[in-house]
Design a protein that fits this description.
4-stranded antiparallel sheet, binds adenosine-5'-diphosphate, Rossmann fold, 251 residues, 10 strands, ABC_transporter-like_CS, binds magnesium ion
Length: 251
């Protein structure tokens, strides 16, 4: 369980503190996947940066599995928009980077897991390549592989597919859901695509303008549905979300 309690973040601007996020309180059950949508600048990346440990100065408290959130002891995966690969490391080393950082020994069962995930994501034959020798879709698959290889307690994805073209994005969404259905890692998935939110979010959390609050959480009956756009319920839910956006992210 991820338990976020009265979380607030302020940034310094012209020597003044400006509230950028919250207060946010929400509980995310282990094995759940939330799509988070909200207006540009409302604090989505700030929220993920707190949860990943990049921002340490925040108000309120965050607990993961009943312990104070601690990026050193918890296993937290972050997939940023630009894929987050190290250009000077090859695919294999990028895939195992998080294990190395955590000081994990790669034993035979871990090695099998790595091979399995790389094969599933179709990057097994690219192990020796460097990021600049990969297409956008391949880079994204390496980032997804890394996140599942590290077996995270919490996976954070910040508009991870927005840099991909439409067809590659759909492939990446499907491959990601394939992996997610197998490992059911607790996930927060920030997106600005309504369609992506409806495909990927078991729940859809909607944020208000900056400083962002969670204004609504929708149980998504269409989660994981194939041929989503042909579904009648899809049209209803996407038009509800579009109405909220038209009203200026208000309900
Ligand atoms: N390092 C920073 N210093 C000052 N203000 C920031 C910083 N990072 C983000 N902000 C501000 O905080 C708000 C939330 O930003 P962000 O979390 O990036 O929004 P989102 O990801 O939803 O687009 C914005 O108003 C942004 O301008
Ligand atoms: Mg952002």
């Amino acid at each position: 369980m991820l338990d976020i309690n009265n979380l607030t973040v302020s940034y310094k601007s012209d020597k003044k503190l400006v509230n950028a996020l919250g207060p946010i309180s929400m509980k995310i059950a282990t094995g759940d996947i939330y799509a988070v949508i909200g207006p540009s600048g409302c604090g989505k990346s700030t929220l993920l940066n707190v949860l990943s440990g990049i921002i340490k100065d925040y108000g309120g408290d965050v607990k993961l599995n009943n312990e104070d959130l601690n990026p050193k002891t918890h296993n937290i995966g972050l997939i940023p928009q630009n894929f987050g690969l190290l250009p000077w490391k090859n695919v294999q080393k990028n895939c195992t980077l998080s294990l190395k950082i955590k000081g994990k020994v790669i034993d035979s069962s871990t090695s099998e897991r790595i091979d399995y995930i790389q094969k599933k994501l179709d990057i097994y034959s690219l192990k020796d390549r460097f990021p600049n020798e990969l297409s956008g879709g391949q880079k994204q698959r390496v980032a997804i592989a890394r996140a599942f290889i590290m077996n995270s307690d919490l996976l954070l994805m910040d508009e991870p597919f927005s840099a991909l073209d439409a067809i590659t994005r759909e492939e990446a969404q499907e491959l990601f859901m394939n992996m997610w259905n197998q490992y059911k890692t607790t996930t927060l998935f920030v997106t600005h695509s309504i369609e992506e939110a409806i495909y990927i979010g078991k729940k859809i959390a909607i944020m208000s303008h900056c400083p962002g609050n969670i204004i609504k959480i929708i149980d998504n009956p269409l989660f994981n549905t194939e041929n989503l756009r042909e579904n009648e319920e899809y049209l209803k839910l996407s038009s509800l979300l579009r109405t909220i956006i038209k009203k200026g992210w208000k309900i």
